[in-house]
Specification:
- This protein is an alpha+beta fold and 408 residues long.
- Helices cover 31% and strands 25% of the residues.
- The strands form four sheets. Strands 15-12-14-13-17-18-16-19 form an eight-stranded antiparallel β-sheet. The protein has a five-stranded antiparallel β-sheet with strand order 5-6-10-8-9, with helices on both faces.
- Helix 8 packs antiparallel against helix 11.
């Protein structure tokens, strides 16, 4: 963190309409509006400051560390600005917590159909910046299917809005999709508009267990092919078996009918009623203790059951504990508690094995892993295009540079 003159610090405070908060590690500034963010970024661009955007910090460890001069907090940019419930749309400030947004929308029986990690604390802007999505993605899609528009402040202080007045230098870009998962490296999202869905009238959860992950994977395939009202579905490893959880959601008559069909599809597997708390497993894995390494693995659906079985086998070794949850769209989230050399070898082996089929391993939490292990692994084939976009939007490397894949 560079030394800044008192005059510059005062100018930043005036621009933000808020006082600077300074700790040993960081200066934090929380502008009170999009326009205030724009003025702060104009000053930062002029002074060549490195700025890192922040919400609640629930995913601050994701990606690489950034040596920033200023943390720009979105906490004052909070609230549901407009809820057009007749059209199933809502516009929300980036600093709004995911839970607070959902609580507000629920007053009209609606929601953003996405189960974000750490919803009680995570901000809407942070969820968008990291492109976080949970198991509801199976039925409703990811954020790219749910975000209709965004307001962003670019590195030079320009305000751009999708679906309305867009400045010349971002014309032709689909702003919502461009900024999803950009980890704050292209601009600061201050407001977004979502497509909404009704809250289901009834939801019921069921669990099947087996000592054979492949048996559960076959059941999962049958269930997905049966056109049931499946809201969420996950596979996970337990201490002595594997579990497949299924949630059905619709009106009562449909749920009851589909529950009967689901039991028929289970065959010899025993299907038991599950508590709704089972859908917190992904959050529990992501909230693993500080010594654990947390990985996000993307893979073809055919590889999911073997991956789950492999982690269960690793857990049988002394001082090894791997807890994994599988999203059927092709994502495995796993917490690894094992000697550092085992975790490093596991990450490197998986990256090598999955590369040819387009898969990857991202380190969300390092735990005891040495810093020489890059969080993102080998950059994707589109890295040159990604660098060109970064250069166009942030040529002075003002915003979160180094946080994202390939040092972006």
């Amino acid at each position: 963190m560079r030394e800044l003159s008192p005059a510059l610090l005062h100018e930043l405070e005036e621009a933000a309409g808020a006082s600077l908060e300074t700790t040993d590690a960081m200066r934090v500034l929380a502008p009170v509006s999009t326009e205030h963010v724009a003025v702060v970024m104009k000053i930062a661009s002029r002074e060549k400051l490195v700025v890192t955007p922040a919400g609640a910090g629930t995913k601050s460890g994701w990606g690489n560390d950034v040596a920033a001069d200023l943390m720009l907090s979105t906490r004052e940019l909070a609230g549901v600005r407009e809820h057009v419930w007749q059209d199933l749309t809502a516009t929300v400030g980036a600093g709004t917590t995911w839970a607070a947004m959902q609580e507000s929308l629920a007053q009209h029986g609606q929601r953003v159909a996405l189960d974000a990690f750490a919803a009680e604390a995570a901000t809407v802007g942070g969820v968008l910046a990291t492109n976080d999505s949970g198991l509801l993605r199976l039925r409703y899609g990811s954020l790219r299917d749910l975000v209709l528009g965004v307001t962003v402040v670019l590195a030079d202080g320009t305000i751009a809005r999708s679906g309305g007045k867009v400045v010349k230098n971002v014309a032709g870009y689909d702003l919502p999709k461009l900024f999803l998962g950009s980890f704050g490296t292209l601009g600061i999202v201050t407001e977004m508009t979502f497509r909404l869905h009704p809250i289901p009238a009834v939801a019921k959860s069921f669990t099947a267990r087996s000592t054979d992950a492949l048996e559960l994977a076959e059941f999962m395939k049958r269930a997905l092919a049966a056109s049931l009202a499946i809201e969420r579905l996950q596979m996970r490893n337990e201490s002595t078996a594997f579990a497949l959880d299924v949630e059905l959601a619709s009106d009562a008559s449909v749920v009851n009918e589909h529950a009967i069909r689901l039991e028929e599809l289970a065959g010899a597997l025993v299907l038991t009623t599950a508590d709704a708390g089972v859908w917190q497993v992904r959050d529990e894995v992501l909230k693993a203790n500080a010594e654990a390494t947390v990985l996000k693995i993307t893979a073809l659906p055919a590889k999911l059951a073997p991956l789950l079985a492999g982690f269960a086998q690793l857990s049988q070794q002394p001082d090894h504990h791997f807890r994994a949850v599988v999203d059927p769209v092709g994502v495995v989230t796993v917490s690894c508690e094992a000697p550092p050399e085992t975790v490093v070898a596991t990450v490197e082996d998986l990256r090598a094995r999955l590369r040819s089929s387009g898969g990857n391993v991202v380190v969300l939490q390092r735990g005891w892993l040495p810093s020489l292990i890059d969080a993102w692994g080998i950059p994707p084939q589109a890295i040159d295009m990604m660098r060109a976009v970064k250069e166009e939007f942030d040529p002075a490397a003002t915003l979160n540079t180094g946080k994202f894949v390939g040092g972006l």
